[in-house]
Specification:
The chain has helices at residues 3-20, 31-43, 49-60, 63-74, 81-105. It is mainly α. It is 63% helix and 0% strand. The radius of gyration is 17 Å and the shape is flat. The longest helix has 25 residues, at 81-105. The protein has one domain (3-105).
């Protein structure tokens, strides 16, 4: 793992420690598991329990990436350009497939609403 990855994670943790104090522990295990369980319990009103658990997993597993995005929204000046690129890359690698899986499990269609070839099987140049 690159130094930039570590720096991004540490900065995000520091920002959320300032904002949330000891509740920062909720972003790690077993806090994330408790969040998954709470969300799955609520979702089980509309979905079979196994499906609710799977949806909850996919919604919660990328929480550190979401924390990065919120930290950037709140304190962009605390990140270097390299850290912003690294954090964005971390999010783009991890979150989209989790969100697509959660949507599919919940019965929501995955569509290419921006018409950029998201659903194509072929790899496109960035």
């Amino acid at each position: 793992m690159s130094n930039a990855h570590d720096t991004v994670r540490k900065k995000v943790e520091a920002i959320f420690r300032e904002l949330a104090g000891e509740r920062i522990a909720r972003l790690g295990e077993p806090g994330a598991q408790a969040t998954r369980d709470t969300l799955a319990s609520a979702l089980s009103a509309d979905y079979a329990l196994d499906t609710a658990r799977d949806i909850a997993f996919h919604l919660v597993d990328w929480h550190t990436d979401a924390a990065f995005m919120m930290a950037v929204h709140l304190f962009p000046e605390r990140f270097t350009p390299e850290e912003l690129v690294t954090g964005a890359d971390m999010l783009l690698i991890h979150a989209p497939n989790h969100l697509a899986a959660a949507a599919k499990l919940a019965g929501h269609p995955i569509q290419d609403v921006f018409e950029i070839g998201v659903l194509d099987d072929t790899d496109h140049d960035a």
